[in-house]
Each structure stands twice: as structure tokens, then as C-alpha cells.
Specification:
The chain has 316 residues and is α/β, with parallel strands linked by helices. The chain folds into two domains: 152 residues, Aspartate/ornithine carbamoyltransferase (Rossmann fold), CATH 3.40.50.1370; 150 residues, Aspartate/ornithine carbamoyltransferase (Rossmann fold, 3-Layer(aba) Sandwich). 36% of the residues lie in helices and 15% in strands. The strands form three sheets. Strands 9-8-7-10-11 form a five-stranded parallel β-sheet. Strands 2-1-5-6 form a four-stranded parallel β-sheet, with helices on both faces. It has a two-stranded parallel ribbon with strand order 3-4. Strand 7, helix 8 and strand 8 form a beta-alpha-beta unit. The structure holds N-(3-carboxypropanoyl)-L-norvaline. The site of N-(3-carboxypropanoyl)-L-norvaline has 9 residues, from helix 8.
């Protein structure tokens, strides 16, 4: 694997998933293959799970890790080509990414969507600049449009819990006080299609995702109908793609509570976290037996390790 920015970088999805499963049985089994190599994790935005799980994964392979919260601890970066840099930004990404590439063997980058300008976000300016200038294999730690490490962990979690070959997977929109990116739901839909899951997406009108991501999925605007018979319920808020970044109001009834799940097939409930309790998902679900969110987050280590191992040339 040369980079990990989207599902398109994966040659054989099943093979990568099986590698993650194998790693989970003995995470330190190949603790020498990254020896002498350094992973640089560059964060433009906050992170808990991605930051910790990717470091753990690298250490399980014997790698050194450098973490930089570039907005707080680095120079303010300029991304525009040809910019006259006489204002806030002290350093252009051309130099910054190239220097990081000189120090590190693999780079991971987190750069969220700004949610102001759709075409700018969907052009993946920051991710593409790092890809172009770092000269090293690049891993997305959530970009403006996708979060593939999350999705690989999600696919692993579903594979572990699925009782039937093709479970009914429902991704439901849920309320949130802030505008959140579409990266997680975009990627989830992309990977669910890759793994040929029976995917139903339910959201209020106006919260359609970009059509390139939902192709092949069923869209159901009635949440109760969508949840009927669900084996997995993937809960996520996202802001509007058409009315770019809009949050919407008066949609509190979309919160996923135990009552909402009554007609599901004892659905396992997933969320990428962080989750706002009693806004997105009720306590009765998060603290109940149907929630698998902690296990899902635990699987982030094995997903990241499968990706690192593949980039190091020891995957398949
Ligand atoms: C991010 C998102 O893309 O939705 C990261 C998820 C892995 N989530 C948030 O930014 C939540 C922020 C909040 O205020 O709840």
C-alpha cells in the first residue's frame, strides 16, 4: 500500500480486514518490522482516539512516533500557491511538509473540513498539499471529506458482530448543536459499499450526503421505518452538504434512544465518538447492552496497525 487516503487505496479490502483481525489476536507479534522507522502524526484539529490508537499501533510495530499539533505548536501554515506571505502565516506547506518528510518515514495528517466553502473542502487542499510535498506515504487521520481509519475499524467491528452474511446496517443522522463534517458518514458509506453491506441511510430532508458516496445505498427519510429489523445502527450527525454546513433545528426527535431500537433486530449501536450524551444517543443506549462503541474505538488500534503494516510492506 502506497498511501491510505480513501478506500480506493486498498487493493484487497477483505485481505486488509483479515490482517486487522489477525493483528488483534496478537498485536505485538511483529514488533520488529517498524524498527528504525518514524511515524509523524500531524494534527490541525483535536483528536483522542486517532491520536492514541495510531501511536499504539506504531509502537506495536516498533516504530518511533512524533506528534505535532501544528496549529498550536508549529508556525501558522499557508496553503495557497503564489501567496505573498506578509500576513499571519509564517511558513508555506511546501517547506513544512517537505521537512516533516525529511524527518519521518510515514506521515499521518488530520485536517478537518472548514464547513464554509464546499468546493474548497471537497478539493482536499490540505491533504493534497501534504501528499504532494511530504514525499512520504501519507495516511489520512480524517480529512475534509473522509475518515478511512475510522471506517476500517467500523468494518472490523461489524465483521466481528455480524450473525448473518449480509447484515442490515442502518446509518442514522442524529441531532447535534454544532456543524460537523461529513467525513465520517461519507467514508462509512464508501466502505459499506466496498464490503457489500445492506446499507440504509436515514436522515431528515436537506441532510443528503454527496451523491458520489451514497450511490447504491437505500435512503429512507422515516427513521422508524429505516430502523426496523436493523442489525447495526451507526449513529452520526453531519451538517448539510447541499446547504453547506447548516445544522438545522427542531430535529431533537432524531436522537437514538432505547425506545427507537424496539423494532430493530436487537441492533448493535455504533458511533465513532466523541458522542454528546442525550443529544445524539441517550444514556439508556450508551450504558446498555446494545452499545458496542467502546469495542469499536478499541478496534481503531488494529485498523491503524493493519494500514501501517501494509505501508511498511508487511501487509498483503
Ligand atoms: C468530528 C467529526 O468529524 O464529526 C470527529 C469525529 C471522529 N467530531 C467532532 O468534531 C465533534 C465535536 C463536538 O463538539 O461534539
Amino acid at each position: 500500500m502506497k498511501q491510505f487516503l480513501s478506500a480506493a487505496d486498498v487493493e484487497q479490502a477483505e485481505v486488509l480486514l483479515n490482517l486487522a483481525r489477525e493483528i488483534k489476536t496478537d498485536p505485538r507479534a511483529r514488533r520488529w518490522i517498524g524498527r528504525g522507522k518514524t511515524l509523524g502524526l500531524i494534527f490541525m484539529n483535536p483528536s483522542l482516539r486517532t491520536r492514541m490508537s495510531t501511536q499504539l499501533a506504531a509502537r506495536n510495530l516498533g516504530m518511533e512516533v512524533i506528534v505535532l499539533n501544528v496549529n498550536e505548536d508549529g508556525w501558522k501554515l499557508e496553503f495557497e500557491d503564489g501567496a505573498v506571505m506578509n500576513a499571519g502565516a509564517a511558513e508555506h506547506v511546501r517547506e513544512a511538509a517537505a521537512v516533516m518528510g525529511a524527518y519521518c518515514d510515514i506521515i499521518g495528517l488530520r485536517a478537518f473540513a472548514g464547513l464554509k466553502d464546499r468546493s474548497q473542502d471537497y478539493a482536499e487542499q490540505m491533504l493534497n498539499a501534504f501528499r504532494q510535498y511530504c514525499g512520504r506515504p501519507l495516511i489520512s487521520l480524517e480529512s475534509a471529506v473522509r475518515h478511512p481509519l475510522q471506517s476500517l475499524a467500523d468494518m472490523l467491528t461489524i465483521a466481528e458482530h455480524a450473525a448473518v452474511a449480509r447484515p442490515k446496517v442502518v446509518m442514522t443522522w442524529a441531532p447535534h448543536p454544532r456543524a460537523l463534517p461529513q467525513a465520517v458518514p461519507n467514508s462509512f458509506a464508501e466502505w459499506a459499499r466496498l464490503f457489500k453491506h445492506d446499507l440504509v441511510i436515514t436522515h431528515p430532508k436537506g441532510f443528503e450526503l454527496a451523491p458520489e458516496f451514497t450511490e447504491g445505498a437505500r435512503i429512507e427519510h422515516n427513521q422508524d421505518v429505516a430502523l426496523e429489523g436493523a442489525d447495526f445502527v451507526y449513529v452520526k450527525n453531519w451538517s448539510s452538504w447541499s446547504d453547506y454546513g447548516a445544522v438545522g433545528g427542531g430535529l431533537d426527535s432524531w436522537q437514538v434512544t432505547a425506545d427507537k431500537l424496539r423494532n430493530s433486530n436487537k441492533a448493535k449501536v455504533m458511533h465513532c465518538l466523541p458522542v454528546r450524551r442525550n443529544v445524539v444517543i441517550g444514556d439508556d443506549v450508551l450504558d446498555g447492552p446494545q452499545s458496542i462503541v467502546i469495542e469499536q474505538a478499541g478496534n481503531r488500534v488494529f485498523a491503524a496497525q493493519a494500514v501501517l503494516q501494509s505501508i511498511l510492506g508487511e501487509g498483503r
